[in-house]
Amino acid sequence: MTAAPSSAKAVSGPILTASMLGQTYMDAVITPHRSLSERGFIILITVVTLANCCSAAVFVYMGALFVPFFLGLDVLAVIVAFMASFRAARRIERVQVTARDIVITHEAPNWSRVVWESPTAFTRVAVAEDDGAVDLRLAISGKEVAVAQALSPRERGEFAKALQQAIREARLERG
Question: Are residues 125 and 159 in the same domain?
Fold first, then answer.
């Protein structure tokens, strides 16, 4: 969880700026953890490809001519899976709290979508803890939305406290 810098690119433009007048009490950008860098990905694919090429050579030598085709499909499947994972890792969740409302937006490099918007005065933070797992939700009038699912349970608990504090401060501004 990091605070958005002032030079952050707002993909949604006027949708958020019209509703976010006044002081912002929280502008959190939540990004998924990437355990494999781009360089690590290239190294991993190189090792998998070399291992499959060695295996293919053995199978061709033994007369199993169709096995290299399936080994090639194996490498292709690994590449596609990692590309999908990298695409998902570029998505962010943005949580903004003002005295007027709370807005949760899911953003990617080429799109943005508001998934939750509610008045700060009536929105509550629901935190459920079960065997170390923390479920964080915003709720109003029987509707709920999960928040900060990309964070670890410990980070989600810390984020819940920060979110509750931001909502408390925003409500104080309204009087």
Answer: yes
